[in-house]
Amino acid sequence: ALNPEPVLAALMASRLLSAAGVDQESLLSGETKYAVAVAEIEAPYDITGMATTATQTSVSGRKTAVYGGQVADTFLVAAMLNGKPALFSVDAKEAQVVGYAMMDGGGAAELLLDNTPATLLLADATSALQDATNAGIVALCAEAVGAMDVTHATTVDYLKQRNQFRVPTGKFQVLQHRAVDMLTEIEQARSITIKAAAELDGPDATRTCAMAKNLIGRAARLVAEEAIQMHGGIAMTWEYPVSHYGKRLVMLDHQLGDSDFHLKQVMKAYTP
Fold first, then answer.
1. Cα-flanking dihedrals φ and ψ of residue 53, to 5°?
2. Tell me: the pLDDT tens digits for 234-260?
3. Fewer Cβ neighbours under 10 Å: the N or C end of the chain?
4. C-alpha angle with apex 253: 125 to 87, nearest 5 degrees?
């Protein structure tokens, strides 16, 4: 089932807090809601291109598309400190937070910082940020597989019920072929997600996660588009679940790096 709650933010925050050796009791109990602020308008996926800067006690800059930021109590902010990506903790009450709804029903925020008081957690957070991103990618891939499963099952069920020329549309061979193509893409997506999860704590995690996110992004878009095409007009209505699954599948491609970005990462990994 689609869940608009900020689970991704909690997962990534947990990995970062573990790396920083910070107690997570308040996160696990739900007492404190965390959000991870890394992306910027000019550097949506690459931490080395961040313009946000920091001193030992403050952070200045703008973070964009902070998932779960609209309800966060504490932000884990990535910023450049002495030329390296560092990790800071910022109280939401000290920052300017502009929350908004995303197209898939979830929430995010813009985080505006201007010499905002901050607590340094990691002076060199490059590895920790990459690890948290990898974990987030695996979670998004798993979510995408589940969403594609439901979308495909809903489509097949519709093809069995919808009649045209007095026969179910599922009897038409061309639609059968398209439904099988969807299933093939889903099974590939499932396999690469299992592979990425298995490699998550290994030395090849970043490359494998990039491969998974690239494949998932392409498969999710295809499944969403095919489902809507085979349903016809009903799939575009607010009341029908496929419209919401379609939007979520398209949105998943843009979170934590789209398919084009991750294709470049894979190419870099294989370039001598």
1. -120, 165
2. 888 888 999 999 999 999 999 999 999
3. C
4. 15
Provide the residue type at 254 as one letter.
H
CA–CA dist 148, 159 (Å, integer): 16
Angle between helices 205-231 and 259-270 (to 10 degrees): 150
| 3-state class (DSSP) for residue 13 | helix
pLDDT of residue 188: 97
* Helix/strand/coil for 152: helix
On the 0-12 / 13-18 / 19+ scale of CB atoms within 10 A, 85 is buried
Give the helix/strand (H/E) hosting 47.
none
Beta strand 84-91 with 53-54 is unpaired
Q: Which two tokens stand for residue 83?
A: 């030329």
Q: Report how far apart the first and last C-alpha atoms of the chain are (Å, whole number).
A: 43
Residue 233 phi, psi (nearest 5): -60, -30
* Residue 225 predicted with pLDDT over 90: yes
pLDDT tens-digit readout, 171-218: 778 888 999 999 999 999 999 999 999 999 999 999 999 999 999 999
